Amino acid sequence: MPELPEVEVLRLSLARRLPGRQIARVDVRSPALREPLDRKVLRSLLAGRSIERLRRRAKYLLIDVEGGSTLVIHLGMSGRLTLIDRDQPVVAHEHLALQLDGDQRLRLVDPRRFGLAFALPSATLEDDRHFAHLGIEPLGDELDGAYLRAQARGRRGPIKTFLMDGGVVVGVGNIYASEALWRVRVHPRRSVARIGAATWQRLADAARSTLSDAIAEGGTTLNDFSDGDGNAGYFQVSLAVYGQDGKACPRCGRTIRKIVQANRSSFYCPGCQH
DNA sequence: CGTAGACCCTGCGCGC
DNA sequence: TGCGCGCAGGGTCTAC
């Protein structure tokens, strides 16, 4: 369950349910994620603590517990974090489960194992290597045309790859990079050196609005992450170009094409993106 | 230094 | 029906 909108909707949903609940037990069932789960640290920093609040940095979900520790979860490509009844059977790829007071558990399932789960003691979060090199958040007002233009100065390479560079701005994943470029009619292969100030501003606005629109849409189409089978997670938003190759561009009618950049698929309309 | 490509891993859908 | 292939929304590392 990757892109930022899913993580943000998940955060909002869990923020209504988890604060005040106590983590009765921490079960590491299968430690093999991108980095091995550390059962000892997870237990010592989380077990017996109450959950205080949920935050997000980039696509990392941050679950703060009393005493200042934080459980950090990244869902990678295929991770799902769901709140389920305690008596639901353990499923394949259930790597981590937090048994909560009451009768529920919060479980992390991740077949492809690109996800992460680790715990940090207080105050070390921004120093942690996972966060140290991250760029700005895309939803706040830090992201504007001047910032992107300054970051792109002296760089080459295509705009699509640049938008997905987490050292510049976090959270613009493969879907929303294509969607944002379609909104501003910029071809994904256009060099960052050939983008003017006004277009940088439109790009910044498009990146933010593409993400926030998806969050709004996801928040309405998906309002419950605690369904019985634990399959909630992805939500489908209306996409103009992503995955639409062969179909007609909703703006100009030309056929949407698919290309590969940096080993990722990009989708664009050859009629109205230049 | 920045950039391009390989790579990590499993599951699914498609074409044959 | 069965099988092999390509592909998947994440990030990181290495080689140039």
What does this structure look like?
The structure is a single chain. With 274 residues, the protein is of the alpha+beta class. The protein folds into two domains: 4-132, N-terminal domain of MutM-like DNA repair proteins, CATH 3.20.190.10; 145-268, Helicase, Ruva Protein, domain 3. It has seven helices and ten strands. The protein has helices spanning 4-15, 39-46, 129-132, 145-152, 159-163, 174-183, 197-221, and strands at 23-28, 51-57, 60-65, 70-74, 80-85, 94-100, 104-109, 116-120, 257-261, 264-268. The strands form three sheets. The protein has a four-stranded antiparallel sheet with strand order 1-6-7-5, with helices on one face. Strands 2-3-4-8 form a four-stranded antiparallel sheet. It starts with a helix and ends in a 6-residue tail after the last strand. It binds a DNA duplex (16 and 16 nucleotides) through α6.
